Every structure is written in structure tokens, then in C-alpha cells.
Here is the input.
Amino acid sequence: MNVVKWARSKSPWIIHFNTGSCNGCDIEVVAALTPKFDLERFGVLLKGSPRHADVIVVTGPVTNQVKERLKRVYEQMPSPKFVMAIGTCACSGGVFKDCYNLCQGVDKVIPVDIYVPGCAASPEAIIDGAAKLLKKISG
Amino acid sequence: MVPAEIIEFLSVLIYPGFIFIFTLAFFYEWVDRKFVARLQNRYGPLYAGPGGILQPFADFIKLLAKEDITPRAADKTTFRVTPILMLALALSTLFFIPTAYTTAVSWFEGDLIFVTFLVSILVLITLIAAWSSTSTFSTVGGIRVVLQMLGFEIPMTIVMVGPAIVSKTLSITNIALWQYTTGHYFAIYQPIGLIVLIICLLAEIKKAPFDIPEAESELAAGWITEFSGRKLALIRLTTDVELILAGALVTALFLGGPTGPFGIPSVIFFLIKTTGVILVISNLRALFARFRIDQMLGGFWKYLVPLALLQIILVTLGVG
Here is the structure.
């Protein structure tokens, strides 16, 4: 087994980025990280700086205002990097679809690896998405 | 017959040198994370190796294999050199503290003072690393590192003198051996000094409640914000080596170092005692929230410096 691939799949550090979410998905992301669901068992740590992170967890529809910031944060991350879109808004725009001030989902701005739908996406769904991402990383 | 130089070289390289210390560093990071997780009613790292024991190793390999970004605005030479320098300093400090054998890899009369010097240099290198990355978050984090040093440096040095006064030697190895031969363990006779030293070391290794320089809710990732890839891997390894350093220093000065009865190899006693100290440190990490920088400085000057002086006064009066 490839050691680097193994290490990558065992230690995905995440950075959480809110692109205009209603905070519903943010609360669920935090719930997935804290004791009851405990994503640290997969080696997931929440990092403050995009320079340390492997996975950017995006919640919310991307507003025109935050679009450039999202791009910049994504570019600040060292590769290989992965993107998780959490919640229906992040996947497609959700109820805000065709609003004049939105980009309709994260994949219009940066490439997305895993979509986790739901309003708000439940912690179980987020863990399922994380497990699928890990499977994708380990190839 | 193998020449003595080769044996010495291998002892620096493998046991009790680099390989031993790195393995121990990864092991203690796992102990720390797992213990804190269990205190918070979580599992902690679970799937990397049995019980997640390979988690720190996986983190390290992953960081080594990641892209290494140097920001355009950074002072490039300093930015590249400081992580290596930090690891080298932490390792060389550890070589003056007895770990696997009853004597340290290298020791001389007065290495207690040298170790205090190296520890402060380590803090100053942190400031240079933060400053050279020129990010606002890093700079503020670096300034906090040095402010924190103004707090913990004085009481730490004062209480480290206590064991030296009683055992009449300035060598860490000799202090540890003196405690074993006389049965006069300073953890019992100088409890105030032990408590002050552990609190000061918590600030030195920047663990909660004194992780003010890294405060992620205020400063992104503090002084390490701009470091990524290999540099971050070295910095994390330095942090783990510093954790051993804290454990080994408390063990050597107050718990008699890697010595014990029944002819059991000294490394076993070292592991038991150091693990004990590290569990105490982890427990404090899980127990307390982060202090503000002014609370931390004020607390250290108002309470820890007088306590440290009280301990020295008691020692000179013959108590301890």
C-alpha cells in the first residue's frame, strides 16, 4: 500500500468556510466535530489557517460578494486539496436558486469533490460524506 | 571490536538519539490526544493503526507529502531555516536531559543554566519564524509568544534553581542521580516548585490554557499561520519534542530522573514518570479554557513569581 496515500486518507484536516449560509449547516458541521459524533476518530482536525488544511468544508450558497474570497482561500491551500459542499444551498443554491446575487452553488466557483445535500445536512450525512471522501483519497 | 566513535554516533542517531526521540514524540502526541478525547467522552484517533496510535505519524507523512508554499511577501531564507533550527534546538536541549540512561547523552557541570538558555532561544526563534512570514496573524502571534516568555521565564528559572541548591550541583544528570542515591525526591520536599514548574512549562510549550499565541478563534492559527507542508511538519514535530522536553525536565529535576529500584532498565522508569507528567499536562489542557494574554501575564507575575521566591526562601531556610 502506498504510504503517502494511506497517510492522506488517515489525516484530513479541514477548514470551515461559510459562504452565506443561514448557520444551519454550520451548526451541523460543528456537531459532527464535537464529542457526540467526534470526527477526530478519522483523524479529522479543524484548522484555523487554510495553509494547514487539506479539505475545505463550504456551507451556504456562494454570494457574489464572497466569491472572490472563496477563490482566494481555496488558492491559499497547499495541494492536494479537496472540497466538500455541505447542504443543499452549497450543492445547487437550494431555495435561493436564480437569485440575482448568487452563483448557484460552490461548483460554479471551485471544483467540488463531495456533495452532501440536506437542509440542514445532518451530522450523520456529513460523516458519510467524509467517509466517502476518504475512500476517494485512498483511491 | 566496534570503535567508540561509531557507538557514540549511533547513540546520537538511534538510541537514545533522534529515532528514539521521534518515536517517543509521536507516541506522546497520541497519548495526549487520546487522553484529552477520553476526558471529553470521545474516542479520539481510532482508525490509523491499532487504537489510532499511528495518527501523529500519518499527520507527519501527509504534511511531508503536501505542497510547500512560501508566501511572496515572506523573508524567504529565514522562513525556510527557522523550522529546521527550532527542531535542532529542541533536540539539542533534550540531549542534556537524562532520558534512556541515567546520564544524559551529553552533560557537564552547569548544563542546567545551558538548558534554560536553550529554552529561551527556542522562544526567540519562534518570534523570528513568526516575524519572517510577515502575515498579520503570525506577527501578532509572535509578539504574544515573547510576551508570554516575559511571564514564564522568571518563575521557571527561579524554581529550577531550588533542586540545584539542595543537591549542590548545577548538572541536571547529577541532580537526578543525587535524588536517587539519597532518596530525597524534590517532588515531596519542594511541591510548590513542582507546581510552578509545570505551569510554566505549560506556557513554554504553548499548550492550553496558555495557547494564546495560537488562539485559533482570534488569530487563524497564530504564529504558524503561514507555514505549510514540510515546514509545518517540522514545527509539529518540534511541538511534540517540546512536550517530551517538558516531561523529561520535570522528571529529572523533581522525580529523580530515569532511576528506580530492582535493576529494571532505566528507560522504563523514564517512560512511566514522563507519561505521568504528560497526563497531568493533558488533564490541565482539557480542564481549562484559554486565558487572555493580560490575565496570563498578570497571574504569572502576581502569583507564580512570589510562590517561586517563597520556595527558594524555604530552601535556603533548610526546608526542602
